[in-house]
Amino acid sequence: MMSKRLCLVFIFFISLFQHAHPQLITDNELPSSIEEDVNLNSPYHTTLTFFYNLDRNHFFPERAAKTLDLKNTEGDPEELAIKLQQIFEGKGIVIRTSEIPNDANFTDSTANGEQRFYFDKVKLPAIFLDKVGNQWKFSSFSVARLPTSIARPTPMAQIDFSISCQK
Residue 31 needs a FRET pair 20 to 30 A away by CA distance; which of 2, 48, 70, 161 works? Predict the structure, then answer.
């Protein structure tokens, strides 16, 4: 059996050969703390933490997994984070950091004033960040749908990934 880390690296590298890739366009200089910390203080910081730690040059899925609200969710958090990234890739979502709120108390006026941030309400209506306590995380609603959402986001999803990833 493959080790968990090797399995995650395999899944990550398979995703590199997909046709559509998410793009995180940073309009400002990245905070220096992003390389070491998991910062969930705002939608901006959570988004940076998630994508930065799943980048091929900084592959730390355990850090990216901390951006997920895992309440009522089964499955390996690191695998779920990679699946979520694959959904962004499959939809070809472009994320500009200048368009992500850097306000810890952000409320969405189009969502009845809830503390929620949608990346794209048309292409990804079920993927959003919620404020959980003092932290912004990918909502438990979004995370709970990952195993079924990954079914056909990209042509690569047609490959049978029947690899057993054991801890």
Answer: 70
- Which residue in this structure is represented by tokens 């090797």? 6
CA distance 127 to 81: 12
Q: Residue 8: enclosing H or E segment and its boundaries?
A: helix 4-16
pTM of the model: 0.74
Residues in the chain: 167
- Span 11-22, pLDDT tens digits: 555 454 443 345
**φ/ψ (deg, to 5) at 117:** -130, 120
Diameter of the chain by CA atoms?
Answer: 49
Angstrom distance (rounded) from CA 4 to CA 76: 10
Name which of 26, 3, 14, 155 is nearest 98 in CA terms: 26
Handedness of CA 110, 153, 91, 55 (dihedral sign): positive
Q: 165-166 and 2-3 as β-strands: parallel, antiparallel, unpaired?
A: parallel
- Pick out the chain residues at pLDDT < 50: 14, 16-21, 148-167
Residue type, 112: N
**In the prediction, which pLDDT does 144 show?**
92
